[in-house]
Design goal:
Pathway: Cofactor biosynthesis; Fe-Mo cofactor biosynthesis. The protein contains 23 helices and 13 strands. With 501 residues, the protein is α/β, with parallel strands linked by helices. The longest helix has 21 residues.
Length: 501
């Protein structure tokens, strides 16, 4: 645990974080967030964060050293898409029992699990995740992984991020440290070009990175490694030979981007592929970094030509949605890079932002939101469910964009809702993704179901029709009479047994 503690202190002491730069040395090592409240979900534990970052590495077997409940169902856990192997979606766990823990069989069971995976699936690598239980009982997963790697002739990578050490975001960073310590730089590519780039913090949710990759290919840029979306183990192992890095989500992997710059001289910048303007700016910055690293200067001209062509096509496609969306009010309850990049994207099509969450956003993200919205009152650190409901029920917004956890708040308020987080089924990145986002918002807002559900019910609390039609009774043959009367009869006959609700 001493090695893990030192690693956590190193991760918290992050000079690449603007917020940390303003602290003294002692305060910097205390961490970037408040400690978790015991028993609170807090958006996930460190183990959850580490697995989120590494699981989309598609050809790797992900082995959870823990009791069964820590793994759960990974087959459809996230919307990350793969163009190759589906091994990453298979759940592997050592399934520790109380007897294993009491008898000290954890390490032996882990070794046997690694052997079974190696013999049955022959993956290029196995990632082994520590959890709360195995860390507390002192299982040395690093020693087991070293022995297994020697025995079976393949990389076995320990991911030391037990849940109790901190939040999901800390787990994201510890996953990046595992890649730096055990994967990146372990293989040398034989096909290096001046146009090789890395993309960090892109998860290829619903295949949205595939909306952007063709643009990069048109410019001759090759994605050496997209970490973690649709990644392969060897891609990550050779990522140290890229010439430039784009960081999509700074809160997750800023430590990885900074240390790759320090160790391998790969410059990085933070950008976004959400929205037309931000996508164009990301392409420009990638081209500029590559030229600084030795690529031919004509890449800049080709980039501008592609941007002009794609922007014209995207704006033309969006014109059909503008009359239906202009002036509509959106409540955005998300975080991270989406807290500012989606705001900017929506404003491009004339949508008004009435509020955006900044709970998971960096200080730099918040400054960008201030510049975009020109009003700090539209930013909220955390809004209670009842406040979200009140805002929607009072029609201060026309739609809410959020994750699945808050969808029922919008549905209870009888207001449209659109998934913007990892469970979504539509890609929103790049120029075509912006058009798709506008289309989905249009569909959600103008769905006729909302007019229907907002209408008052045709009966009162006692089941009597509120209309000029006769009150339904035993001999009434109107369409609603039989079910309404039957329900009232059932309720009255069972009132004594049911009691008050």
């Amino acid at each position: 645990m001493s090695a893990l503690k030192a690693k956590i202190e190193d991760v918290f002491n992050e000079p690449g974080c603007d917020k940390n730069q303003g602290k003294d040395a002692k305060a910097r090592k205390k961490g970037c967030s408040k400690p978790l409240t015991p028993g609170a979900a807090a958006g996930g534990c460190a183990f959850d964060g580490a697995k989120i970052v590494l699981q989309p590495v598609t050809d790797v077997a992900h082995l959870i050293h823990a009791p069964l409940a820590c793994e759960g169902n990974s087959w459809d856990n996230r919307g990350a898409a793969s163009s190759g192997s589906s091994l990453w979606r298979t759940s592997f766990t050592t399934d520790l029992t109380e007897l294993d823990i009491v008898m000290g069989q954890g390490e032996r069971k882990l070794f046997r699990a690694i052997r079974e995976i190696a013999e049955r699936y022959a993956p290029p690598a196995i990632f082994v995740y520590s959890t709360c239980v195995t860390a507390l009982i002192g299982d040395d997963i690093e020693a087991v992984c070293r022995r297994a790697a020697e025995k079976f002739g393949l990389p076995v990578v320990p991911v030391n991020a037990p849940g109790f050490v901190g939040s999901k975001n800390l787990g994201n960073k510890l996953a990046g440290e595992a890649l730096l310590d055990h994967v990146i730089g372990t293989e040398e590519p034989d096909d290096v070009t001046p146009y090789d780039i890395n993309i960090l913090g892109e998860f290829n949710l619903s295949g949205e990175f595939w909306m952007v990759k063709p643009l990069l290919e048109k410019l001759g840029m090759r994605v050496r490694a997209c970490i973690p979306g649709d990644a392969r183990y060897r891609d990550i192992a050779t990522a140290h030979r890229a010439k430039a890095t784009m960081m999509v989500c700074s809160t997750a992997l800023i430590n990885l981007a900074r240390k790759m710059e320090e160790r391998f001289g790969i410059p990085y910048f933070e950008g976004s592929f959400y929205g037309i303007s931000d996508t164009s700016e990301a392409l420009r910055q990638l081209a500029a970094l590559l030229v600084q690293q030795g690529a031919p200067p004509e890449l800049l001209d080709r980039t501008e030509s592609l941007i002009a062509e794609e922007e014209a096509r995207a704006w033309a496609a969006l014109e059909g949605f503008r009359p239906r969306l202009e002036g509509k009010r959106v409540l955005l309850n998300t975080g991270g890079v989406k807290s500012w990049s989606v705001v900017h994207a929506l404003q491009e099509i004339g949508v008004e932002i009435v509020g955006t969450s900044v709970k998971k956003s960096t200080l730099e993200d918040k400054e960008r939101i201030k510049q975009i919205l020109k009003d700090e009152n539209h930013m909220f650190e955390s809004m209670a469910p009842r406040d979200l409901y009140a805002m929607l029920a009072e029609h201060k917004a026309d739609i809410m964009l959020s994750g699945g956890r808050t969808q029922f708040i919008a549905l209870k308020a009888k207001m449209p809702w659109l998934d913007i987080n990892q469970e979504r089924h539509h890609p929103y990145a790049g120029y075509d993704g912006m058009v798709e986002l506008a289309r989905q918002i249009d569909i959600a807002i103008h769905n006729p179901v909302w007019e229907t559900v907002r209408e008052a019910s045709p009966w009162d609390a006692d089941g009597n029709l509120i209309s000029s039609a006769p009150n339904p009774g035993e001999n009434d043959d109107t369409p609603l009479a039989e079910p309404v009367h039957a329900f009232r009869k059932f309720a009255n006959s069972n009132a004594d047994e049911m009691g008050e609700c």
